[in-house]
Write a structure and sequence with these properties.
Number of helices: 10
Distance between the termini: 47 Å
Helix content: 10-25%
Strand content: 15-25%
Enzyme class: lyase
Shape: globular
Organism: Lacunisphaera limnophila
Number of strands: 16
EC number: 4.1.1.65
Pfam families: PS_Dcarbxylase (PF02666)
Structural class: alpha+beta
Largest sheet: 10 strands, mixed
Keywords: Decarboxylase, Lyase, Pyruvate, Zymogen
Number of domains: 1
């Protein structure tokens, strides 16, 4: 029986498409076979494996991978802030900046935006979010935030899961304007966050290393923006300045090499998520959309 493909809804094109998975054969072996799961627990989930690969992607000879990658995944070089041949390493290319205006930010003080390019799942009530990667698996807010009181604050609120593939733009941004807290690191493993892995165990989302930043927003209250590390992610780097209010769509930080994930949480009764995101998520389809597009509106 052939493996189940990963399908998503392309927001701009209004079509259902099949994901071209980077390293698919390796992912299916690692998470779908007995020997692969042994390798996963012995080595792959551990930081040393990802650090080694991140180091390899920072060597000068890794730059030889850039042009084939651009061709294989049909990336739009016109939006890059630098020309492809000027990147000294693959990692430098991977966390590239884009030209100003390449990601327009939806206007309106009461409008929240997507924090990253990627495939998004949106739920109006996080407590009712279950079975979106595999039947019977429910998102554990307390385990994810590592703080019972904070989890209670977001219980019943809205949640967005933004999954970044290696082919995506890998900087993440603030979905709302406000005053951010100092990011809090929660150490953990580095499992893959591909649906190939999450269909086996949704708990990878709260077992992985992650960083939690609380943003105090005049329109949305306390918003949690949480970055999740994953296999082959060298690091999560925060670039924003502490002690200064941020604007919506402003850069927050970047991921080094690998697939990764951003989870955004809103308190109950503070946002009405856009209907297309909620409807596709309810049907089990992630929505491909880009940073700065509408997420929802303050209630």
């Amino acid at each position: 029986m052939p493996p189940e493909p990963i399908r998503y809804f392309h927001r701009a094109k209004r079509t259902v498409e099949t994901e071209q998975v980077y390293g698919e054969e390796w992912l299916r072996w690692t998470y779908g076979t007995t020997l692969g799961r042994f390798a996963l627990n012995a080595l792959v989930k551990r930081a040393v494996a990802s650090r080694y690969y991140g180091w390899r992607m920072s060597l000068r000879d890794s730059a030889n991978r850039i042009l084939p990658f651009i061709v294989d995944y049909d990336l739009n070089v016109d939006e890059f802030a630098k020309k492809p041949l000027t990147f000294k390493t693959f990692n430098e290319f991977f966390y590239r900046a884009l030209k100003p205006g390449a990601r327009p930010v939806a206007e309106g003080e009461r409008v929240a935006v997507l924090p990253a390019d990627g495939r998004h799942l949106a739920f109006q009530n996080v407590d009712a979010a279950a079975g979106f990667y595999a039947k019977g698996q429910q998102f554990d807010l307390k385990a994810f935030l590592g703080d019972e009181a904070l989890a209670a604050k977001f219980s019943g609120g809205a949640m967005l899961i933004s999954r970044l593939c290696p082919v995506d733009y890998h900087r993440f941004h603030f979905p709302v304007a406000g005053m951010p807290s100092e990011p809090r690191l929660i150490n953990g493993w580095l499992y893959s966050v591909s649906p190939i892995a999450l269909r086996q165990n949704l708990a990878y989302l709260w077992q992985n290393k992650r960083m939690v930043t609380l943003v105090e927003s005049p329109e949305f209250g306390t918003v949690a923006v949480c970055e999740i590390g994953a296999t082959m992610v060298g690091s999560i780097f925060q670039s924003f300045v502490l002690g200064r209010a941020v604007t919506k769509g402003e850069e927050k930080g970047l991921f080094k090499f690998g697939g990764s994930c951003v989870v955004t949480l809103f308190p109950p009764g503070k946002i009405r998520l856009d209907a297309d995101l909620v409807q596709q998520s309810a049907a089990g389809l992630e929505v491909y959309a880009r940073m700065g597009e509408r997420l929802g509106e303050a209630v």
